[in-house]
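Hey, quick one: can you model this chain's 3D structure?
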Amino acid sequence: MMTCDDAKQVLVEMIFAEPDEGQAILAQQHLVGCSACQAEEQRLLRLREGLQATPVEAGAELRRRIRLALPRQRPRGFTGMLRLPVPAYLAAAACLAAVLMAVLLARSVPGRGTPAPAPRPAATVVDKAPAMFATAGSYETAVVADGSAGEQETPPPDDR
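Sure thing. Here's the predicted structure for all 160 residues.
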């Protein structure tokens, strides 16, 4: 069984804070049979109602101390975002992206990186001699093995 002094301490916690659940049950059982503790409960409830109804104006010194105790708010927008701590994985990803871009740019700039492969010759080799091509025009073009272009004059088309 709970004494009146113990019950009064638990009553304060029950009315103004969060009491231990087991202690609150014991205090409720004590209140059923104790008129002095019931009167104390009524007095504490009126006190709480009076405190809630009375507006409290904090003095300048109290407001200053409260502001100093509160964590600083960061500015919103882009400048506020710059002041946020960057997780290590984001910093590593940004570095990796920068290195990858540098490598890709170095390969795409002419004169840097690996040289471009030499162009393959357009002519095919017949009997280890390169084939010779004649310029196409009004002549028929043929490729011969001796390296000379066989040119034959073609007659103009017959309009008849």
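One thing worth noting: The longest strand covers residues 139-143.
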